Amino acid sequence: MTTKLTTNAAKAQATKLTVLGEINHMEVDIAIVGGGAAGLAAANAAYDAGITNVAIFERETATGGILKQCIHNGFGLHRFKEELSGPEYAAREHEAAVERGIQINYQAFVLSIEEGPLLRVISPTLGMTHVHAGAIILAMGSRERTRGMLQIPGTRPAGIYTAGTAQHMINLEGIIPGREVVMLGSGDIGLIVARRLAYEGANVKMVLNRSHFSGGLRRNIVQCLDDYGIPLRLLHTITNVYGKNRVEAVGVSQVDKATKKAIPGTEEIIPCDTVLLSVGLIPENELARAAGIVMDRGSKGALVDQTYQTSIPGIFSAGNVLHIHDLVDFVSEEGEGAGRAAAEYVKNGGAERAEVVEVVPGSGVSYVVPQRVTPAAQGKVLMRFRVRNIYKKPTVHVLADGVEVKKFKRQILIPAEMAEIKVDAELIAGHKTIEVTVEAGEPNE
Amino acid sequence: MHDVLIIGAGIAGSACAHFLARYDLDVLVIDAEYDIAVGTTRANSGIVHSGYDPEPGTLKAKYNIEGAHMYPKLAEELGFEFRKNGSLIVAFSEEERPAIEKLLARGIENGVEGLRIMESEELHQKEPNLNPDAVAALWAPTGGIVDPYGACLAFAETAARNGVVFRFGTRAEDVELKDGIWNVTVSYNGDATDALKGTSEVLQARIVINAAGLDSGRLNGCASKAEDFKITPRVGEYLLLDKAHGTAFDSTIFQVPTKNGKGVLVSPTIEGNLIIGPNAVVRESADDTWTTNEGLAQILREASKTWTKIPSWDAITNFAGLRPTCVESPDFHLGEPEDAPGFFNICGFDSPGLTAAPAVGKDFAERIAEKLDATEKAEYIDHRDAPRHIAKMTDEELAAAIAEDPAWGAVVCRCECVSEAEIVEALRSPVPAKTADAIKWRTRAGMGRCQSGFCLPITMQLIAKEHGVDLADVNKGRDGSFLTFGHRGCFDRLPEVEMGGAQ
Lengths: 445, 503
What we know:
The complex is a heterodimer of chains A (445) and B (503). Chain A is α/β, with parallel strands linked by helices. Chain A has helices at 9-15, 37-48, 86-99, 147-150, 163-173, 188-199, 218-225, 286-290, 328-348, 425-428, and strands spanning 24-33, 54-57, 73-75, 84-85, 103-105, 109-114, 118-123, 127-138, 142-144, 160-162, 180-184, 203-209, 232-234, 236-242, 249-254, 268-271, 274-277, 281-283, 315-317, 357-361, 365-369, 372-373, 380-387, 391-392, 395-400, 403-409, 412-413, 419-424, 433-439.
């Protein structure tokens, strides 16, 4: 970060004037909901694109989002070409925002997005404030799936946590959530937390995975489970929780690969005091949904064009709230893209939205972002997607109105790792629908 | 010596405490748990029944009707949530029509107002999501939905403001009548703040109210030989759906009752979720509040008769509630056994116990006041402001609240939109919240989509700070439900690491 910048603090101060007891009004060019990796990158990119009146509304007491509790390393290899811990990565992004004088509002909770667009925000220092924004970037991140969503039966004792909550307890509060631990799901956070608990002397008895492949990155399986002798049991799930006050045991059953259901009669009782769940993330889109933004059922995020603009002009979405990422580097990259596009929107108004090309997932693909490409697209259009299964030596086909216009060869594609292709805008323009499909080159075992 | 000792701080005990608080009496409420409403009160359908179901002439019929009449006014006075949304008991075929007609006749005999048969067209207009097969329904407009925990808390807090003392972590082990005085042996099993933890004591009282729910049968056995009955825990399993479906039905939809109870219902909850359940399974132990795959599948199957397209994937949680049922004589067992003067039972208080509780409480308070020759207090607080929630405030109210205390602007629970100020108010209540569960039930922090994933650590900090306990000693709920094993470094064992594949 060598760019020399003048601080914007005076302006930030001026717009921050708050009258308590009354509804305050604040005007900003770009309002960013969320100060995690996506939000910070978006703010900095918007500033660098010439829009300086940018404000971040962060609901917690610090920026960085979930990075704050990710004290392990492995972040930033793409973005900074070095290996950082989560807090270090967040600190770099935060410092860049501070250098630019980006206004960061802490404990600032966005209640709703109204027409205007306008954000209804509360915070201990802002009171009740209506933020009138030229453009809005949604960067709220994601939340973890819970026991309730999985409908795991059994008792409801203390000792059942999502992996992220356990990680927060250990790394931010310094308290230890479990001693004899069974984990369900092998998502990346779960794998990291399994290792973290092992570091503290807890016994992670096993990690169970309902499907026949892990939801985590390969390097994490090796570094977090294999190195610590923690067994990964594929095609197994928790079918019962026992224990009155604190977890005492779980019932673990085998899962039928074909039906994906637990096989009755295979339940084995595993004594433990803690159940951790790492069974996936969900984009936290309640605000977007309530505002009437059109959502994609596949990505569970907003439906966006190649500039990350949602169905409501002037509202953009980036990072885990748009679709779940594996690497924060790409979250930042996406945030920057949204930041630049929002700046462009503020400067020149919305691009032509007529004659958009629809991008849809085809065979083997669960979703593609963006879901729309506008005629304004130039050069290469970046498309990110996830596959539904493991594909060895696959070919990714891009079909324009049913006719292949481009194909890409890959070594392997797995559901746990986001895939991307770059397609020339010229190949897209003028068509109705672009379909992305994947075809295996070698059969799975 | 206490004038009145109430065993159990559920809806029955708390309602008694509330009505007794008007009188110049020394009233103590004890409960084995760390909070009010931990047993049956917490986990049920949350329905104020209109009263068409109980056999005419039973105590259930009498107190159900009286209680249903009391709820709207009590909710207003004591600031808890109640909505008269009405109940529909649906006949899904002409074969079931006689059953609803029978309930109509029974309801009229019980004195329920406004009952009538609603025919298909009106029914489907009123409830568009109802199974198209439904042919008719009994419409009971006086049925309502209530937040049972909120009602219990309103009773308990009002009682406490008027001088009633609540002591938690206090289990009644034995009761015995000695020289006209009731001796209640209690053991203390409180949390880290309880100086008496691990000790026991004999408390004396002129009157005992046995509102111990699932444990009430055992205590009755200690006090009386004349009155002999057994209380069996009967579990009901429920599924709670996301608020996205809270308006799928406006009224509470029952199916035709079976011998096991009122059957599986589908109802909006007062908080705006949709509740589905319960089934009815007899359980061995009073602690068996587990749910089963079979049970959850069963209620979904049965409820799909009401709503053919139940979005079961949008369930946010499932739970089981235990009902203290007297199987051999299924009516309430209320009042003094002939060999136990001054020992007031509230036993077998299963459905419609929630509805009946205020009527029983008022009746008992009047009888006990007369027995003890008590007079009404000169100063009595008869009103309680409803707890304030930012999720329900207008922008002007929010602005004013945050100006008054910035903590109203600090959101702790993002899913249910709960501020730090709400949590602190619960921690400083006249009946203080001490556990994560107590905070959850009072403020809804942790009850939403993420199921406390984000807010639990913050709630724990607030509890620890307010009550002066170590963060690692905060409990989820009852004794033994510890949330953590201690601070980092609490385990000696260090891992044996085999580095190999990392490169």
